[in-house]
Design a protein that fits this description.
elongated, DNA-binding, 10 helices, 214 residues, homodimer, mainly alpha
Chain lengths: 214, 214
DNA sequence: GTTTGTTTGATACAAATGTTTATATTAAAA
DNA sequence: TTTTAATATAAACATTTGTATCAAACAAAC
């Protein structure tokens, strides 16, 4: 428990985030949150106005900062490489999102909250898109542009980024399917394997890639 | 309106599916459903037992059959090709899921319902996984196996399929992001473009692919 | 020590929730 | 026609919901 954890407002944010991520907005009651945060029911109203605003503040105070940390990790990973290339970008992306600076629990929360907003956008999506997604996509596009085939326009680049992104996102939020299909748990070794997969697939698609056994 | 639409039970299933997909299980009340279906509140209890069982029956009676139609479309598309190859499989997959036999509304519902189950699996996920996902993955793996690099084990094949799948899924449920990033609506032309993207990326990854302009 | 602004606490309340019950209506069978 | 089963309806149930109220406790400033 950090020092801030003592403060009611912070405790509420923590518990609210965990519950919203796990069960979704409507399935979580204010009472659940305040009970988990060991505070009074009225505290939510006092600190955040109402449930909706609390939900939004979870994104402001938790989701967005964490997303920034992931992006920062991505930048540093890329900077640590001697040369930038498409494969380096793909690897940095996969590393940042599948391993990166977040704990496994944080990673799950993060992708659950985002995916919920993708399926059914609320006000939080505007925040998420404006403050995180758009700028990061622009950054990625600028980074990748020099290494892309000549004729590929901005749209082509965008779609390539989205393709990489889809894997990163999917391998995070669809763990239950990935585990069921591959029969593997999300331990460190498997995450390494997934990073490898994303990088290889991003570079070579289905056919190529380094042959593992042969 | 079909003939079956006259029957209360079917009307409830239709409206329940639409509402569950759009707003999620907890955000939808039984009253909303019965109002939309123009029937009495108690009809849900009478025909399905309770709300949970109705939700499950939506998957049984609507989702699973539709998924089968998509898979059938995939098979026929693949069979119509003179030769089977990785690219043919990728194309059939993208065509089936992004265009295929479903209406655009159906496609959205389908992926919304599934994605909700991926984020937060309920009993419906077991149905979905056992009756649809697993068999289809096995079918895909068997189809692709002969064309995969020698050393690639079953896990490698599975991960490649999942990588393709991630794009197909993502481009369906994250429309709001894809549209915002690319600035394009999900019309026929853009869906063609997405199919092309998925196929190209699946075959060549980032670097290769046919140069569009140059 | 008093005052001031902030935070917490217990309680209240109207609205909405899923479910049940008892009754009415309709359709089919005898 | 009478009987029987299937379906639909209206009303009520006990809970749970988000939010509001108001007094108590608290900390900091004067």
């Amino acid at each position: 428990m950090s020092k801030k954890d003592q403060i009611t407002r912070e405790r509420i944010l923590n518990e609210a985030e965990a519950l919203f991520a796990k069960n979704g907005y409507d399935a979580v009651s204010v009472r659940e949150i305040t009970t988990a945060a060991r505070c009074n029911l009225a505290a939510v109203n006092y600190h955040f106005g109402n449930k909706q605003k609390l939900y939004l503040d979870v994104f402001r105070a938790r989701w967005v900062p964490r997303a920034r940390r992931v992006q920062e990790y991505f930048r540093e990973f890329l900077a640590s490489r001697d040369t930038v290339s498409t494969s380096a970008v793909a690897q940095a992306l996969a590393e940042a999102f599948l391993k990166g600076p977040l704990s496994d629990e944080e990673r799950q929360r993060q992708s659950q909250l985002m995916t919920r907003e993708l399926i059914q956008p609320t006000e939080a999506f505007e925040l998420l898109a404006g403050e995180v997604l758009r700028p990061f996509f622009k950054e990625l596009a600028d980074t990748l542009k020099p290494f892309m085939p000549e004729g590929l326009g901005n749209e082509g680049i965008a779609l390539n980024i989205l393709s990489m992104f889809s894997m990163v996102i999917y391998f995070n939020f669809a763990r239950v399917v990935v585990s069921r299909i591959t029969g593997r748990d999300y331990d460190a070794a498997f995450k390494d394997r997934l990073v490898e997969q994303i990088v290889e697939f991003s570079i070579n698609g289905l056919g190529g890639g380094k042959k593992k056994g042969a």
